[in-house]
Amino acid sequence: MLHRIWLGFFLLAFLAGLFQWLFQGDAEVFQRMVTAMFDMAGLTVELAIGLVGLLAFWLGVVALGEASGLVDRLGRLMSPLFTRLMPGVPAGHPAISSMTLNLSANVLGLDNAATPLGIRAMKDLQTLNPTPDTATNAQILFLVLNTSSVTLFPVTILLYRAQMGAADPASVFIPILIATSCSTLAGLLVTAWVQRIRLTDTVVLAWLAGAFALLLALVGWFATLSAEALQRQSSLLANVMILGLVVLFLLAAHRRGINVYETFVEGAKSGFQTAIDIIPFLLAMLVAVGVFRASGALDLLLDSLRGLVALTGADARWVDAMPTALMNPLSGSGARAMMIDTMNQFGVDSFQGRLAATMQGSTETTFYVLAVYFGAAGIRHARHAVACGLAADVAGITAAIVVSYWFYSI
Question: What average pLDDT does range 211-225 have in this prediction?
C-alpha cells in the first residue's frame, strides 16, 4: 500500500501542475516542483545528520539502562499489557522495554528522545519478524500508538502562540489533550479490530482505566495553572525527566560495577549506522511530500472542500485551518509552517488560529515516522499500517474541529 501512496503523490502532483499550467496560466509550477525535489533531497541529508548525534546519545543511554538492569525491570512491569496487545511478543522481550521508553517520551513531548527510542524498539521487534521485509502486527500497532500518542506537554505550540501575542497561550492546552486522546484511542481501536485483538481482557481494561484516570487528574491540575505557570511547569517537568533518566541509568550501572563510559560509547556506535540506513527511506517520502505541496494540489483540495461546505450552508471557518491538518501526517515542519501562517492570517486568538494549534497537537507526522521507523528496520511492506495510522489522524482532526467549536466558537 505504501508504494501506491508514494506513487500517488507524484501522479497527483503532476496532474495538479498540468491543471495550473493549462487552466490557470501558471507556467512556473513545474519549476517549483523540481526545486522542491532538490530542496527535499538536501533536507533529507540534513535531517539524517541531525539524527546521528541524537541516535548515538540515546542509544548509549539505553545501553546503560540495559546494563544496569533497569530496562529489564521496566519490561517486566509492562509485559502483562504488551503481551495481550501484541501476542507475538513474548513476555520479557527487550522490545517491551524499548516501546515503553519510547511511548513515555512521546507522552512527555520529548521528540528528541522519542525518535531514537522508537527506532530501537522497532529494531527489537524486527528480531521477532519471520518475514523481515514485511511489518508484523506488533510493529504496526507500535507504529500507530507512536504516531497517535497522547502528548501531555505541547510546549512548542504554546511557545509559538506566546511569541505571536496570544492573550492566553495555554488556552489550547485542554482541547489539544482531548483531541490527541481521541486520536490514540481511535488508533488502538482500529488496529485492534483489524488484528482481532481482544481489548475486553481484564488486564487491558485495567491499564486503560488507569491511564485515563491519570489523564483526568492531570487535566484537573493543569486547569488550575495560569498560562505562564503551565508553560513553566511542563518545561521543568520534561527537562527534569530527561536529565533524571540519564542520571538514574548512570548511577544504577555504576552501582553494578559497570564501566559506564565504555558501555555508553559501545551503545552509541550503532547510532551512526542507523542514521545512514534510514536516509533512502526518508528521502523517498520527503521528496514525494515536497513535490505534492509545491504542485498546488493541497490548495486545489482546500478550495474544493470550501466549495462543498458552502453548498451545505454550514460554517466553513474550520476549512481555513485544514492546511495544518492535511500537512501534519506528511511533514511536521510543514504543518508548523501552516499553523503559523493561519495564525498570522486570521489572528493567533481567532477561531481559525486556535483550531490550527489544536490540530497541530492532535496528531503526529505519520508518513515521516513510518519512513524513519520502518526504514531503520528494513521493512518495505507496511500492510495495514498506513490505513490504521491515517484512521487515527482522521479521528484526531475530527475531534480537534468538534472540541474547537465547543471551546472557541462565539
Answer: 74
